Amino acid sequence: MTEREAMIEAIDLCKHYGSFAAIDNLTFTIRRGEVVAFLGPNGAGKSTTMKVLTGYLAPTSGTARLCGIDVVQDRVRAAEKLGYLPENGPLYPEMTARELLTFFGQARGMSGSRIAERLDYVTQECDLHELLDKPIGTCSKGQKQRVGMANALFHDPEVLIMDEPTTGLDPNQIRHVRELVKKLGQTRTILLSTHLFQEVDAMAGRVLLVDEGKLAFDGTPEEFKARGAGKMDEAFHTLTAHS
Question: How far is 154 from 149, CA to CA, in rounded Å?
């Protein structure tokens, strides 16, 4: 069996702010069909890493690639492969979900028929039926999160990077997102940041833990729990607590 294609690559990534290293020689590879949970304490470098991988921030040194494309050297082509759901991502409050998705579809050069096809898809998968023609500014936090998820999926990307994808969702919506992520992960590559350990067990087949800008753990959820006597919270504490 041949090794699966590398879809997300961080190679000796560094991001410095003056003398502070937000990311410090971070290296990992995520392959097609993997769903990876990205963990770390607040300030550990998770959000900075995700912003560098998506091309929103340039690294101080090192290389970030999506589908083999350097995100600094060819950001536009890399962005075509990427669906990004930032935490509290910007949405135009005066637009409806239908208007927003159509606008971004047109901005990506999608045809009218393709936009209609993808609108049907994300409406079903992200449960947007009652939200399509509602101004986004009047939506709840959870409803906005569903619109953001739809926008990340709209152009059918090969790679999904999601920051706290279940934030603000009710238990039924969380269950739906879990099922969707597992389904998408069969053919796509997904990196998701979360503080909720139950989300790791429910969705991920691999855990990456960063601490102080460095990779502190890379393995399966079971291997991660083994670092904390079978408990994820204990493993997290063991690997990130500093005396």
Answer: 9
Ranges of CATH 3.40.50.300 domains, the chain? 1-81+157-243
pLDDT tens string 116-162 = 999 999 999 888 999 999 999 999 888 888 899 899 999 999 999 99
Sheet of 214-219: strand order equals: 82-85, 159-163, 189-193, 35-39, 206-211, 214-219
| Number of CB atoms found within 10 A of residue 145's CB | 25
CATH architecture of the domain covering 1-81+157-243: 3-Layer(aba) Sandwich (3.40)
Encode pLDDT of 30-51 as tens digits: 999 999 999 999 888 998 999 9
Q: What is the pLDDT of residue 1?
A: 38
Residue with the two structure tokens 């006597």:
229
Strand blocks (E) in the chain: 6-17, 20-31, 35-39, 61-66, 69-70, 82-85, 159-163, 189-193, 206-211, 214-219
Q: Are 159 and 132 in contact (CB under 8 A)?
A: no
Model's pTM, two decimal places?
A: 0.91
